[in-house]
């Protein structure tokens, strides 16, 4: 921590764009497909993930010098599930409607690869505060993608955004969009766009290097 | 330190301590929110009973719903069946409708809910599901307004042989089944008929 300066900007740039968990690492797809038919669900799910990923990375990093290497995954799962249970309790107590809407997906945050991925890839070898930020950045990257998918799906499927009607009554609701296939289409289009952009960028960089 | 980590005891102790810490934190949180969660669940049930009695438009806030429930609805103690109680809607001191619990197997898991029937047992006032785990988008649509609305005000005075609700297009059909969810639709109609019949028999024997 002393010799390494905390580069907040780089961490957030990685989590949100360069290393976006959903678009570039293709992890956390299951819930990204499941809860994105409404923007409100996506937002709450995203925030829950920011909370869980951030704090589990923080805790894993705090304990990393004391954790025996061969049981570190056990420890990580324990830490992650504890935070997920906290989220679940909070939703049940203060947002019962949302708890119902998200149903099993809150509990399934435990199996979200993003959290374990960040714990293994970053928190296990970095200081706590940086890990906290890294986890939150990955969670925010996930939230951003979820909201982007939900925007298209809710708009076309229900004609609403955050439950507020925006399309005129005459617009025909596109039922496919609120069913699982809709998520596959929207997500793959996003991945397609983002990846082709990156390939172009990399090609341009290579050319520049050669000259 | 390195030697410690490789021993058998260290990982066990480490994990036990960590588990204990989290158990205390989680148990504490659970204890703190227990009442709120129980209240939420009670409120949800009360709202569902009000829906069965077609009173869902008579309140706007949660407090109004609670007040309306305690004012108009009472439990019918003599027909307590397990945990699901029968509720009655009061108009003054008179019971004008009943919410009869029903339960039965669904396609994936058991279905439970309440069916409303008026006090002369000729008309249904409504239906609401408490638990169901049918396929979302297919059988799960039993919980949607379009399906439930069919039970509202349904005339069952001509029903014979405990067939109060019948799926169309069978003769005498009065409920549209859900397309693509024939099994769920059948299960629901059967459990509603069975449990309503049992309730009516109990009431009539009682008289």
UniProtKB/TrEMBL annotation, chain A:
Keyword Translocase: yes
Stated name of the protein: NADH:ubiquinone reductase (Na(+)-transporting) subunit D
Organism expressing this protein natively: Peptoniphilus equinus
Compartments, as annotated in UniProt: Endomembrane system
A Pfam family it matches: Rnf-Nqr
Keyword Transmembrane helix: yes
Alphabetical UniProt keywords: Membrane, Translocase, Transmembrane, Transmembrane helix, Transport
Residue ranges of the TM segments: 21-38, 44-63, 75-95, 101-119, 131-152, 172-193
Chief location bin: membrane
Signal peptide: none
Membrane topology designation: Multi-pass membrane protein
Domain of life: Bacteria
InterPro entries per UniProt: NqrDE/RnfAE
UniProtKB/TrEMBL annotation, chain B:
InterPro entries in UniProt: FMN-bd, Ion_transpt_RnfG/RsxG, NqrC
Transmembrane segments: 12-32
Subcellular location: Cell membrane
Top EC group: translocase
Keyword list, A-Z: Cell inner membrane, Cell membrane, Electron transport, Flavoprotein, FMN, Ion transport, Membrane, NAD, Phosphoprotein, Sodium, Sodium transport, Translocase, Transmembrane, Transmembrane helix, Transport, Ubiquinone
UniProt KW Plastid keyword: no
Membrane topology: Single-pass membrane protein
Superkingdom, natural source: Bacteria
Residues annotated as domain FMN-binding: 106-199
Cofactor(s) the record lists: FMN
One Pfam family recorded for the sequence: FMN_bind
Keyword match NAD: yes
Modified residue annotations for FMN phosphoryl threonine: 182
E.C. number(s) listed in UniProt: 7.-.-.-
Family per similarity comment: Belongs to the RnfG family.
PANTHER family according to UniProt: NA(+)-TRANSLOCATING NADH-QUINONE REDUCTASE SUBUNIT C
Quaternary structure, from the entry: The complex is composed of six subunits: RnfA, RnfB, RnfC, RnfD, RnfE and RnfG.
Job of this protein: Part of a membrane-bound complex that couples electron transfer with translocation of ions across the membrane.
Name of the protein in its database record: Ion-translocating oxidoreductase complex subunit G
Organism: Peptoniphilus equinus
UniProt gene name: rnfG
